Amino acid sequence: MNPSPFSLRRIAVAAFGPSLLFGIGEGAILPVIPLGARDLGGSVAMAALVVTLIGLGSLVSNIPASLITLHRGERWAIVAAALWSVLAMALCALTGHLGFFALGCFMVGMSQAVFGLARQKYLTEAVPPEFRARALSTLGGVMRIGLFIGPFAAAGAIQRWGLVGAYGVGIAALLVAAGVAARIPDLEDTTAMPRAHNAPAAPTAAQANSLPGIVRAQRQVFVTLGVGVLLVSAVRATRQAVIPLWADHLALTPSTAALIYGLAGGIDMLVFYPAGKVMDLKGRRWVVLPSMAVMGLGLLATPLTQGAASLLVAASVIGFGNGIGSGMVMTLGADYSPRLGRAHFLGVWRLMSDIGSTCGPALLSLLAASLSLGAGIGATGIIAFAAAAQLVYWIPRVRRPADP
């Protein structure tokens, strides 16, 4: 009897439910973190630093996340990450000390790293390769939907209970996420494939259990595609600051800037599944090149805008380009991760992505201070084209590792 064909719908709740809830939980608290820091006596600069600690917590936790996932398994790593984030949010909500508040924000970033890596590894091994891009694009899209819903879910609670209400919404969403994740079935690994005669050797068992061994075995991937992923992440992180900063430069009202940002985010969310389908059916290059090229064009056009309407057009182009690339970085990481040592590989892969996410806004800040904001945005657009060139050049040239 032939097995029934694979369907993403059959695993939708188990695969994407925790991610949606995790996104809602984070989306509920992210807008209030700067306000919370200010309420505790922090300056504007200190509030910005506290927000940065979330990204820093994720950055330094990628390698530990690979160890946790390797030794405890994907399912319980997801549960632990959700509960750790609950603890972090409770600390932020209840503390009256800015230092402890900052620690809570750092802990939120730590949970992001563990959750993201475990979720990516679980889907990589649970979904057949021919559905991989659709699954990981949907994962990225679902997280974005959660981040979009979160602030609206928290708004009513804030109206009634103040800022602490947002943390209550976040904690509730993450507790449900932990409960759903604990019931995730142990799906059969469908990714094992016979070794091609001309494929490079997969890591040995000794290499798979050693982070340096994985880095040595996969160094070609990291210095080629990994650099491309770093550039992609730099562009994506910077684009979140570009729209509000340029809106302020144009002297638009905060409400207008928020509306433009929200509409661009809506376009971003609408196109994640078609992009994944194109990657599965046509290949990764068919999405990598258009995604970064469109984002590059939108970024280069932004300094030329003169008002709300033209900025909305540029922001929508950027949002569309980012949306069609949903799951792109995770898909490439899954494609090139070896069966043995996958957790270590993905930990390094996500570390490179987070380095890009940290360096991109820093470069924008440096160029804006030394030259002009327009020059910084234009440089980000050029980086988008460089990312496209790097990935398109190397994707067909770096072989995927064969599974043993």
Write up this protein:
The chain is mainly α. It has two domains: 12-182, MFS general substrate transporter like domains (Growth Hormone, Chain: A), CATH 1.20.1250; 205-394, MFS general substrate transporter like domains (Growth Hormone, Chain: A, Up-down Bundle), CATH 1.20.1250.20. It is 79% helix and 0% strand. The protein is built from 17 helices and no strands. The protein has helices at 12-29, 33-39, 44-72, 74-94, 98-126, 132-161, 163-182, 205-208, 211-217, 219-249, 254-270, 272-282, 285-301, 308-324, 328-336, 342-370, 373-394. Helix 5 (98-126) packs across helix 16 (342-370), helix 10 (219-249) packs antiparallel against helix 14 (308-324) and helix 10 runs parallel beside helix 16 (342-370). The longest helix is centred in the middle third of the chain and has 31 residues, at 219-249. The model is unreliable at 187-201 (pLDDT under 50).
Full CATH superfamily name of the largest domain: MFS general substrate transporter like domains
Provide the helix percentage.
Answer: over 70%
| Helix-strand pattern | HHHHHHHHHHHHHHHHH
Radius of gyration: 21 Å
The main pleated sheet reads as:
none
Distance between the termini: 27 Å
The number of strands is 0
CATH architecture designation of the largest domain: Up-down Bundle
CATH class of the largest domain: Mainly Alpha
Give the total of domains: 2
Stretches where pLDDT is under 50 for at least 5 consecutive residues are: 187-201
Strand content: under 5%
